[in-house]
Structures are given as C-alpha cells and as structure tokens.
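Two entries, shown back to back:
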Amino acid sequence: MRTTSSSPAWIFAFALAAVACGGVEPPRRDCTTVIWAKPERAGNDLAVEGSWDGWGAAQPLERRDDGWHLLPLDLAPGEYGYRIVEEGKPRLDPFNALTTFRGEEEVSLAVAADCGSPALRVDEVAVDGDRVTVRGTFLATPEGGELDPASLAAALRDGTSLALEHASADDGAFTFTARGLPRGKHTITLTARDTDGLEAPASRAVAWVEPAGASWRGGLLYHLMIDRFRGDGGAALSPPPTAGSRAGGTLDGVRAEIERGTFDDLGVTAIWLSPVYTNPIEAREGRDGRLYESYHGYWPSEPREVEPRIGGEPALRALIEEAHRHGIRVIFDVVPNHVYESSPRYLENRNRGWFNDGPNQCVCGTPGCGWGEKLPTCWFAPYMPDVRYQTPEAMRAAVDDVVFWTDEFDADGVRIDAVPMMPRAATRRMVHGLRESKAGDEALFSIGEVYTGPGPKGIDEIRFFLGPYALDGAFDFPLMWATRDVFAGDRAGFSAIESSIVQTDAAIHGSGAVLGRMLDNHDTSRFISDASGGAWNDPWTNPPPQPSDPAAYARTRMALAFILTLPGLPVLYHGDELALAGAGDPDSRRVMPDPSAVTPAQEEVRAVVARIGKLRRCSAALQGGEREPIAVGPDVYAYRRDAGDGDPVLVFFSKAKSPVSIPVPTGAAPPGAYVDVMTGESIEIAANGAVALEPLSFRVLLPAGSPCHNPSP
C-alpha cells in the first residue's frame, strides 16, 4: 500500500488502484510516502520540510498539470512530522487531518509503512440475511512471492471457518462466505501467506446479522454506571453508605438485564458502559472536601486491565457476547486524558515528557490554573497526572490503548472522556487507529464528551472536534440546556429549541457527525429534579426527593418523547426511563431503583420510552428522515419526520395551561387518517387542519396504515 501523508480521498483511491492494477502482477505494496499539496495562491511553488532529515532545507514539490504538487519520499518505516512551505512560510497540510508535534508546535503527520511483509486489504463486507461475504486483495511485498491461495483463511472469534469461494494469485483477489449465521455481531479474522512463506499481518472485518439498529444514526444509546446499575444476577442494589461510596454494581448485573430483555423492551440499540479499568481501592478527597471512592471508573490505574470488583475480564466478555446475541452494540468509556498517580505508566514515565508534570504542574481550577487558560495541561485532580500528547510515545500509547480495548473485547466503539482537555490531534489519531483496525460499515464508532454551555458558543466548541477524519459524533450539550429551559420549566419558549437545532445542523453540515441527544447525564442534575423546581441544597445532606408532582412527570414524558423523535442518536442515562431524581454529581449517580419500588408515575414514563424506543427500530422516518417544523410557538411545537417512504411521523407538544389546537398548514403534512401511537386514538388531519392537545401533553402520530403501529423489540 502506498502511504500518502496528505491527499483527498479520490487521489488516495486512485493511488491504490494504480499500485494494484498498474500492469504489475501480482499486485504489490508500495510504501513510498507521497506528500500532496495545493498552493493557497495560484502559481506559487511549494516545498516541504520534515523530521526525516532533522528539519533541514525544504525540498521542492513537483508541479502537476491538474494543480496538485507532490513529492515522493523513500522513508524508513515510522512516523514523521512535516510542514508545507509556501512563499517561505511553513504551515500545516490542510489535506491531512493527522498531526504530531515538534516540541510544542503542531505539525502534519506522515506515516511510512513497512513493506517487509505482504498485506491483506478488505475491500467489501456484505450482509444478505444470514449470509456474510468478505472480499479482499492480497498485496505482495515489492520483491516477494505472490499469494499462496492454500494459505488463505478466515475465521470467526469462536474458531468457525468461513468458506473460501474464490482466490487468485494473479490479481490477489479473494472471497469468503459464511451462511446460516445467527443474529448478532461476527468479527472475522483473515490470514494469508505468500509463496515464500511470509505471513501478512491479520486483518479484521465486522459484519452484523439482524442488528438492533441498522446504524448509529437513528439508534438509541443507553448509558449506565456499572457500580450503580445492578448486582450479580440482576439484583437490585441498596444505596451506597455515602454518595461517594461504592454500591456494588457489577458487569454480571448488566449482562443479566440484557438476558432478561430489559434493553430490548426499551428499543435500545447500543449500551455505553462506564469505564471498566482497574481503579485504586483507597478513597480520595474531592473538590468539596469529602471522600470519594473510584466507583465511577474514571481513575485508571491499569490502562489495560478490567476492574476485578466489577467482575474482571470473564464478566466483561460474557456481557459483550450476550449483548451481541441480542443485536446490541457495546461501547467503552475510555479515559485518555489522565491516569491515576499509582499507574505504572506514570511511575515509569514521570518527568520524561509523557505527562504535564514538573515545575509547571497545576490542578484545574486552582489559583493561577484556571480551566479556561490551562485546560489542555492542568491536572483534573492532584492525583490524576495529565497526559502530554506532544510526546510521540505518549500519543502512541494512548492510541494503542483505545484500539486494544475494542480489539481484545470485541467492543463496538468508544466514548472518549474530556475531549477538550486534550489537543485535537489526540482524538483524531485515536479515531484513525480505530478505523484502521477493522473493516466493515460502521465497524467502530467514536463519540466524544465535549462538555459545553448553551448557545452558539457551545455549538462552535463541539464543531471544532468533528469532521470526516475526526470523531464520529459528540453529545449535543447546547440542545440539552435548551431542552431543560423549555420542557423542565418555562424559562424559554419552543423557539429556543428550534433555534438550537437549526444552528447546530448548519454548523456541522458536511461533517458526517452523529449528535447524541439527551436530557441529562452523570455530571448534571436529573431532568425531573429540575422540572420540580431544582430546590435543594447540599446533595449529600439534603438531596432532592423523588417528586410526586404529576406536572413534573408530564414534563419528563414530553422531554423524553422529544429527544426520542429527533434526528441523531438519543441517549438515555440509566434511570431516565423511570424519571429518577437527583441533584448534580454525585447525587445524579443514584442506584437504579428496585423494580418493586417503582411507582405508577415512573411506570408511565417507562412506557413512553419503550413505545417510542421500539418505534425507532421500525420507523425509517425516525431513523434517518428529514425533520421539518410544522409549528413553533412559546407553548406549542410540532414537526414532521419523513424518509420519503410514505410513512411519516408527526410529533406535537403543548406546555400550555389549557387545551390547544395546533394548526397543520396545507403541505406541512399529508392529510388523512392518523393514529396516536401512545393512546391508540384515531385522528383525522384535514387540509389546513389542526391537532388538539391537552395541557402538558404530546402526540406522536403515524398514518393509519403504517406497519409500525406494533413494532417488535
């Protein structure tokens, strides 16, 4: 394979085709590193300077007739920094998203591949019912033998072999198939040798049979904190002795709930687990002066070990296998910004440039170390050394960690913690590593925590970390705050929500990003406590009670219906489906209620989530349809989701104090008979008609003939 350090996708594809089909049989790897660039001013000459010669004199690029300039480089395998030079001024390569560092300066990254072994390239992974087909190409070394067809093998994780349908030494092409595969995820490892006996590094491909969600876009992600969810066998947990103590939740407790069908009943397509790293046993003092244990998992002391107190590796593997049998994906919460102070990685590499330690070390939020001015380098806590990504070895270790977790445990992606506390280069390198590790449509997914405030500033902060070569998604915090302002209270009208959605859609247009939409999370107060007035003091000594006010539950049901019918990836935090109360962290991390203690009001909330969650699995409109507003007012809101299949979904909200009729202008929705999926009520919408709503209520309407009235789990 030719390694191009900077080129648009079409040039990269062309280069690969030329290598594979350029009249040389068999196809061979070409590890030439090629720098591609275009001048900012037409007619300018370009040059490149890089670390391959110690940042010596800039080398000129060859001008081509199509406007591109290029320079082939024969480099030893490894990573190199470089800069494009135009009119004597060095700059980053705008056509290359990957970067590294020269001291503190960010520079573009070129990766020279090693052609000492052949390579297996996966070209296609196709799924048709229970049949999976994998097509690929064997690329020989520059001087070595061709493909030995007898050496080709493809196997599932359980050792089951796929059938070799076709193999050609002439063009290196091969095809494997498997038939009769059960529902779930199938990770395929491919191996081969050349006729000299030289083995290609294994390649991996992912195929899903009957997944719960066809893609991340339009799915439903369930976030749970393992320690606060369920005990072994799915046992209900007692509240911990203090808000900062362990409650005893385990991975087996999660597995038991998957087996029980709890997530199927809610329409969940993916589960996000809190961090599973080994964490320290001792309690530490928090910013509030109280003691906290590492129940949450965010103090990684062993970057590649599973915490024994939640069940260790065997329990994690069993959980993921069970989830995959249900067609449910699993993502890990990775914490690359910092380690715990007893981590071997810190002890072995302290004061060697791997961490922001030494005389300039400081803790975020302390005097002279403000969050705004020191965010990329400050320590989250005095016992959490902050990783310094300007050091190449630290960068590579973090990227390898992320790939390790998804490879070793067959996970389906990652949620990356504290994204703004690291240089953007770090998350881009992690995402690149994930995409290189497995082939297949959406084989691995990355979503980042870019914690922001409300409004356009927050939207811009999120946008900075998205793009085709960056994170696959991020959490929509600006919309979360707007949703709370509108639905939890009457601090804003529905135009605030509509404005946030429109501004965000415009900001991320073309990025391909999937936005996670939520009501709350483990760091914020719970939505229903906000809807109840948010009147509490110290969450340790005076936490908000579970509300009894029917209006608070009505507002929660409306807000959940809202996020569940939006484009993107709705995110439920454990307990949202039961309107679980709570102040901010740590009170927002209460244990999942015992089923026997769930009230009728909470059951009503769960019924809304289950009904619309399963509807998302059925409805093409909710999975990926366009959203068009029908009505936007201070107290009323309506929109249409439509995938063009004749089965639109119409959604209406009212937080008015008396019954209202929301107009449906001609052309805003197809006239005809509809059914409210929550109540079963038949509703006729005439041309230029209206839909009636009671106070603090919502409707989700499907055409009367829709096949999604009774979706299966």
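entry 2 starts here
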Amino acid sequence: MKMFSRLFTPLFWGMFFFMFLALDATAQDWRPVDPAHLAMKEPVVEKDADAEAIFWEVRVNDAGYDLVFNHYVRIKIFTERGKESESKIDIPYIGNFQIKDIAARTIKPDGSIVELKKESVFDRTIIKVSGIKVKAKSFAMPTVEPGVIIEYRWKEVRPFRSADNIRLPFQRDIPVQFVKYFIKPDPNRNDLAGMRTLAFRMPRVPFTKEKDGFYSMQMTNVPAFREEPYMPPEDQVRSWMLIFYSQEDNLDSAKYWGTLGKRVAEYMKPQMKVNDEIKKAVPQIIGDATTPEDKLARILNFVRTQIKNTSDDASGMTDEQRKKLKNNNSPSDTLKRGMGDGSDIDFLFAALATAAGFDARLALLPDRGDIFFDPKLPVPYFIETGNIAVKVGEGWKFFDPSTTYVPNGMLRWQQEGVQALILDTKECVFVPTPMSPPERSKETRTATFKLSEDGTLEGDVRMVYTGHRAYERKESNDDETPEKREEALRDMIQSRLSTAELSNIIISSVTDPVKPFVYTFHVKVPGYAQRTGKRLFFQPAFFERGIGERFPNSARQHAIYFHYPWMEEDVVTIELPPGYALDSADQPQGLKVENVGSYDVSIGVTKDGRMVEYRRKFQFGLSDNIYFQSSNYPTLKQVFNMVHDRDNHTLTLKQDAAK
C-alpha cells in the first residue's frame, strides 16, 4: 500500500487529470453518431445513390495573413459501388497550399470504430476527367463495407491569402444531406458589411451570425455533381458561391467596367513606357518587314526568343533564383537585362509595338476554361488575365507574348472566343477575340508500313502538331527529361496498341516557339492483322486503331463542350505481304455536318496490287461550333459513332491460290 500511496501523489493526479482532458478533447473532435444514421438502409437525397454525405461542413477563417479551411465530412455507405468509390480518398491541393491534420475513421453498424493510421496518408498526382493533373493527399479508409459510416477531417492552409474571391462548392461528387460553411471575415475589415456573395446555379443563401466572429450559410438535400467527358468547366455547371469583399453594391455594369478600365490603364501606363532605348531597338528588330502583320510578328518573335521568360517552368530557373532577381521597372530594363517575368515580356512587346507606330494597349480577358464570362456581371475576379491588343487597320489583333508556344495570330484556347476589355485612359471597350479555325490546330500524321504474313505491322511514323495541339504537347513535355518524353510517347501508343514496340524515337521542337511539335519513330506491332485460314483482316486507319467511342454513354446530363476546333489529316501506306491481294477494295463513305465538321476517307491500291494507301481527313468546330446543348447529345453521339465505325473499317487480304 505504501508503494501505491507514493504513486498517487498530487503531481500524479495533476498529470492524470491533464491526460484525461487531452483524451477528452481529442474525442470531442469527432461528433457523436446518431444511431438512426447507423441504421439507415436507404439514401435521402437521391434514391439510387451508392453513398451519401450526412453532412459536409467547412470552417473558413480569414486570419488576415493565411486563409485556413477546416473540413469535416461524414458519409454513409449503402452499396458495394459506394464502397469502391468512397473507400479511397483524394484531397486535392495546388501550388503552396498545405493539407494538414488529416484524421479519419470507419464506424461499423454495431458502433465499433476503426481509426486511420497516420502512415497510411501519402502524396500522389491524380488526373481529372478534364485531363488536368492535380496533386493530392490520398488514403484508403479502413474496413469499409456497405452499412458503415466513414468520416474524415483535414485542415487546408492557403498562405498569404484572404477570403476575397474564394469559391465555396456546395455541390460535391456525392449527394449531401446538409452542407454548411462557417466564415470568419478578415478582422481588419471589422465586420461582415463588406463581404458579398454571388450564387451560381443555386439560390442565394443568407448569412447567419454565429459565435466567435463566424457567420454561416447552409443548404440541405444537395444532389451529386457528376463529371462527364467533354463538358463545360465545372464551375459553369455545378452549384457554388463566390465570396468577395466590396463596399459597393448594385453596380451598373457598363459604368463599372469603364471606370475600372480607365483606372487600370492609368496605373499600368508607366509599365509600357517608350524611351530612347526602346525606340533605337525597333528598327533592328523589324528589319525589312513592311506590312503591319510582319512587323508585329518580328517583334513577337524577338521578345520570345531574345528575352528569357523567368516565369516559364522550362526556363531552368529555381524558385530561389527567381527570388533573387531584381524587378524590372520599365520595358527598357527588360530589354537591357534580357530577361523578365511574363508581365515584363508583355509590356516590352507593347512598348516596342508602340514605338513602331502601333496603338498597343493592355487588354483584360476572361478564361473560358474556368467559367463563361458575362460582361453584365461587374466582378473583376473573372477577367484578370492580361494580354496585348494592337490596332491594325480598323480592327484589333490580340497577342499573348509571354505564353511562348502560342502561335502568332492565336491566343490560348481559353482566351479565344471571349469578350476582351481593351483598356484606355479615355474610353474602354469590350471586343470579341477570334477563335482559330480547325486548320490552325492540326494533327498531320503519316506512316509507311510493311504488313507481314503473320499479321505484324512494321514501319516509320511521323506525327506533326500545330496550333493548340502543339501548345498542349509542348507544355506537357518542355520541363521533362528526354527519357520521360519517350516514356510518355510509348504510353500513348501502347494505351491503344498494347503490343507496339517503339524505337528510333525523335521528339522535335519541344521548346521552339514557332515550329510545329513533331514525333518520329519506328514501330513494330505484332498481331496487328488477324489471320483466319487464307485471309488477313486489318484496319488501315492505324492512328485510330484501339480508340474507343468518344461518347459511349446513352444519356447525358451536361452540355457538350470542345475546347477548340481541330483537324486531323492522315496518310498511311501499307505494303502487303507477298502472295496476298485485296479480297475487296471497298471504302467508307464520307460524312458532312453543315457548319460543324466533315469526314472524308479514300483507299487506293497501286496498279501492281502491292501497296494500299489510306487517306483520312476529319475536321470539327467549323463556324466556331464547339458548344452543344445536352438536348443535342443524341445527334452528336450519332455523328461521332459514325466516324468511329468508319475509322474501324476493315480490309481483307486473300492468299494467292498458287502460294
């Protein structure tokens, strides 16, 4: 007893009490579970849901220096499909955002609990349906089965950010019974008076005052948001809310954009200042160019090739090196130093164009890859990207000098076909940017093959990309090693031709701002043709072999949205195996969709019957037709199914009887 009396000293009791409080505080982080939720057999929001969130709550704290989100979600699993879809969790993040304090647990119907182990959380890269790569913290929920409840929470920290212009999604990828946001405004703004909201595809939800300086908004019975291939941007079709600070309300949009444009133009005027150094440089840059188009093309080529873009991920510069760089205070600084960030290069282009006698101005453009902008909405958040507009004749031409791989006469696809605000200290105007026609974004693919008697196809391939197609290839390859580039090419070909063996790979013009992006390689594809008795069957459309239907689903929820018009042109020559000849030389019919696209195929055979030449030309997006309502889905699906069927046209070879 004396031993125990020594243990139970006041110090011990104090430590024990502290530990008890700590354990109790940890337990308080998880809310009690309603037995009715454990016993739930069917979803509430959507009858056929495989899983449903009971609640999804987020606390947003605008601390004035960091923006902190605390997420807490609880989900009921109903089916095996729900188990598969919800047992693996990805928490996406971008840039310098931080994901911390992840905790998760599974609650079985009998009330027993299995906690997630900390070492089960790892980083990975996920690819969304839209093709965008995003980093994520990932983990697998323990012991998930139909009938259980899973819940997890995490903290997201956005350094040096505020709650001004943040997006709050109310619609998630599963139905949610109860969505609630708690928002604590920046203390430097005193109260909620300056905080505004804009609701998209949902009713405007009022704020409710909560304790500790928070205000809340909530919705109930929110249906799931489901991604579909070739749909408009997520925030164009799902329910969400924009939070922003403003002391003004009920603004006249025309007056607002005019006032904003003049203010920005006045502020940015020194950044595009023309001095003697700029004037002296222009004649050497322009050279013997005489037309306005040629002069501007040479200025554009100069700022892209002779000025190092320190903002480009392919510049070879580290973040530490960028931090040590001096700021360029004028276009002449950028010219003298031979380097600058994206804005510096844009301003230098504008200054050089002005010195060459052009009216060059800064233009603000929206991003239709993010949301479709409406000038009637007076919020500058949606129109912040700066490009340069130059008056040529009676119209305006737009340039994106700092985006290295965008061809002259084009913009990034996200900025084509949008309303651009051209700034001026006197009068600002909205002008539509043109959309590039299909032939500007073209894939030209050629191949020369020999087909063997055993069905092996072997030969040389060349694939040339221009316009937006080239831009996408260059951006995805420019910061990769040659080995990684070759690996990506092999993966691309083998994803549809699993037996393909590539060699002699050459990838050209990866970082060239002007030339097309080019793949050349030798390929061998065992089993390309199928042999049955004395016949061989093969698909002459080599570049379409193994590609599935573009729209396999019978129904569609969202509109159909292609990023830009495009064209494909293929020439495939195949030498037939000795002793074989075409059993039939039929070819698919062409296809035309007025003001949208066309598809043409021809199959020819040399006089000696030894060579087959296959030609294919497909273009889509004529007359800027890249957006289609969901009601047009059956027709659009039929068109692409017809193209797919024609691409899978099979030729038959018959072995010579003498052979």
